[in-house]
């Protein structure tokens, strides 16, 4: 039985290129081929929390070029590779080895072949900006709603009641932005959240945007820190804010400094849903030039 090693990932360091060796190839149901490399700069979409879309790009061998149409998370157990939505466990589950599966149109490079991996740098830059904006917007929203709680609840990385963590339903990173959807129902009200805090959404929006505007005027460093270089290794996003450094668990890609940011803004909208309210936060980021 061929052993498939855990993929070493270099995208947390900002890499968009790299040399790698093909260690496994599998024919997929749609006729395409899944390629596993020993190391890669490609960021795959996470199966359990698919907030940041996958990188796209190309693999180049000495004789051919293979466009990468998406990159998926794969898990290996007892020699069997399970990919994407078929993966029954979360990243890091015991007994599993986790890999990045580069989806290419057949034919594909052969196992053992050396390839040069190239990520689309424009898409990566847009998604990295969007992901940084998403984190900062969530912290700003938590701060804007800090007075809406009647009970003590867990706090976020900046020390405010963690509305984002407690209410989030979905989060999607887009090019230079993000969309986050929150649920305010019985569970959140029992935790002490007063829905009346959302009666004046424009006021909440203004408080969040004022916070974001202040942060955008600072030169704080941003980075992804890790101890394990494999795909399943725990990674932490860290950002230097005027109030102090904040850290969040994160497997995505990011900007390297707040000095790159000209502005981050959020827009809030709410809708009645069965059993409560759905709040949507749309975030946009504009980079300095």
Summarize this entry quickly.
With 289 residues, the chain is an alpha+beta fold. The protein contains four helices and 16 strands.
Give your account of this protein's structure:
The structure is a single chain. Strand 10 and strand 11 form a beta hairpin. This protein has helices at 121-144, 163-167, 186-190, 201-216; strands spanning 8-9, 17-27, 33-37, 39-40, 57-60, 65-77, 80-83, 97-104, 114-119, 168-174, 177-184, 222-226, 235-241, 244-249, 261-273, 276-287. The chain has a 6-stranded antiparallel β-barrel. It has a 4-stranded antiparallel beta sheet with strand order 10-11-16-15. With 289 residues, it is of the alpha+beta class. The protein has 4 helices and 16 strands.
Order of helices and strands: EEEEEEEEEHHEEHHEEEEE
Spatial strand sequence of the major β-sheet: 2-3-8-6-5-9
Secondary structure tally, helices: 4
Biggest sheet, open or closed, and with what strands and sense? 6 strands, antiparallel, barrel
Q: SS-based structural class?
A: alpha+beta
Radius of gyration: 21 Å
The coarse silhouette is globular
Q: Which stretches of 5+ consecutive residues score pLDDT under 50? A: none
Distance between the termini: 53 Å
Strand content: 35-45%
- Give the number of DSSP strands: 16
Topology summary:
Blueprint: E1 8-9, E2 17-27, E3 33-37, E4 39-40, E5 57-60, E6 65-77, E7 80-83, E8 97-104, E9 114-119, H1 121-144, H2 163-167, E10 168-174, E11 177-184, H3 186-190, H4 201-216, E12 222-226, E13 235-241, E14 244-249, E15 261-273, E16 276-287
Parallel strand pairs: 1-4
Antiparallel strand pairs: 2-3, 2-9, 3-8, 5-6, 5-9, 6-7, 6-8, 10-11, 11-16, 12-13, 13-14, 15-16
């Amino acid at each position: 039985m061929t052993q498939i090693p855990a993929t070493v990932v270099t995208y947390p360091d900002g890499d968009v290129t790299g040399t790698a060796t093909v260690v496994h190839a599998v024919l997929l149901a749609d006729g395409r081929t899944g390629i596993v490399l020993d190391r890669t700069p490609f960021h795959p979409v996470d199966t359990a929390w698919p907030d940041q879309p996958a990188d796209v790009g190309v693999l180049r061998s000495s004789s051919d070029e293979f466009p990468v149409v998406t990159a998926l998370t794969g898990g290996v157990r007892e020699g069997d590779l399970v990919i994407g939505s078929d993966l029954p466990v979360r990243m890091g589950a015991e007994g599993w080895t986790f890999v990045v599966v580069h989806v290419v149109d057949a034919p594909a490079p052969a196992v053992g072949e050396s390839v040069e991996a190239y990520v689309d740098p424009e898409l990566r830059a847009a998604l990295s900006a969007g992901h940084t904006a998403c984190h900062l917007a969530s912290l700003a929203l938590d701060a804007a709603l800090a007075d809406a709680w009647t009970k003590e609840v867990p706090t976020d990385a900046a020390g405010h009641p963690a509305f984002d963590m407690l209410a989030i339903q979905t989060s999607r990173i887009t090019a230079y932005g993000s969309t986050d959807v929150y649920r305010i129902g019985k569970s959140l009200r029992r935790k002490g959240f007063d829905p009346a805090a959302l009666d004046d959404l424009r006021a909440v929006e203004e408080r969040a945007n004022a916070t974001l505007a202040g942060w955008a005027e600072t030169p704080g460093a941003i980075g992804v820190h890790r101890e394990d270089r494999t795909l399943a290794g725990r990674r932490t996003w860290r950002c230097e804010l005027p109030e102090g450094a904040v850290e969040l668990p994160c497997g995505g890609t990011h900007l390297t400094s707040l000095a790159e940011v000209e502005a981050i803004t959020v827009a809030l909208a709410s809708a009645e849903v069965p059993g409560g309210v759905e709040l949507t936060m749309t975030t946009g980021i504009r980079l300095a030039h």
